[in-house]
Amino acid sequence: QSALTQPASVSGSPGQSITISCTGTSSDVGGYNYVSWYQQHPGKAPKVMMYEVYNRPSGVSNRFSGSKSGNTASLTISGLQAEDEADYYCSSYRSSTNTHVFGTGTKVTVL
Amino acid sequence: EVQLVESGGGLVQPGGSLRLSCAASEFTFSNYWMAWVRQAPGKGLEWVANINQDGSATAYVGSVKGRFTISRDNAKESLYLQMNSLRDEDTGFYYCARDRGWNYLDWWGQGTLVTVS
Fold first, then answer.
1. CB contacts, 8 Å: B44 with chain A
2. Is A93 on the interface with B (CB under 8 A)?
3. How far apart are CA A74 and CA A53, in angstroms?
4. CB-based contacts of B106: which residues, under 8 Å, 6+ apart?
5. Do residue A93 and residue B102 have CB atoms under 8 angstroms apart?
6. How far apart are CA B41 and CA B44, in angstroms?
7. What are the residues facing B108 on neighbouring strands?
């Protein structure tokens, strides 16, 4: 099944803000608020950073925020820090296939 | 803290079978949906399957339908993935995750590596 579309890479300097987009369709991102974001450091398991578009799990820094407009969801990291360097994946429920679907993934680099 | 520990990965020939297990602890296993997610080496995440609390509802990604079976044993607090007719493209790390009912995956195991070659 087709993945949600994310930019391959995003970079920023420490202290800056960056935004990662996640584009789907009305059958997934646009149709439901079941959009979540995951951070994965090399060799580690993914960790949920955002759920239901803009809700942060306990323990996740408030430098992370989420939003959605139409068929595109976004994750913004403010005050970028070295520890934020990782791969990030969005995910959504897809009604046309009754499955979860992940995004293509974005590598965040802190310059 | 929630613990999910996968096992059962290994090297298998194309066409072969493998059964993955995931041992859960530190939460009431029978209250939650569970899922399997895989990641080919150097590639992105791919949702594989999920199962509801009592095992009466399951769902699969198209590429594994008819070949993989997700199941659970609530008495043993364990999740399983029976993988048959394995293909080269099934190679990767397989993660067990707690599924908040089609919403998000809030806890993940460390993964087990499956190599089909």
1. 3, 89, 102-105
2. yes
3. 8
4. A48, A51, A57, B97, B98, B100
5. yes
6. 8
7. B97
Q: What is the DSSP string of B41-71?
A: TTS-EEEEEEE-TTSS-EEE-GGGTTTEEEE
Contact A99/B44, CB-based, under 8 Å?
Answer: no
A105 has a chain B CB within 8 A of its CB: yes
DSSP 3-state assignment of B31? helix
Distance from C-alpha of B108 to C-alpha of B98, rounded to nearest angstrom: 7
Torsion of CA A45, B47, B102, B68, to 10 degrees: -120
Beta strand pairing status for A99-102 and A47-50? unpaired
Per-residue pLDDT of chain A (111 residues; tens, 9 = 90+): 799 999 999 999 999 999 999 999 999 999 999 999 999 999 999 999 999 999 999 999 999 999 999 999 999 999 999 999 999 999 999 999 889 999 999 999 999
Chain A positions in Cβ-Cβ contact with residue B35 (cut-off 8 Å)? 100
Does B2 reach chain A within 8 Å, measured CB to CB? Answer: no
Task: Report the distance separating Cα B47 and Cα B35, nearest Å.
Answer: 8
Query: Dihedral (C-alpha) A68, B59, B77, B45: value to the nearest 10 degrees?
Result: -50
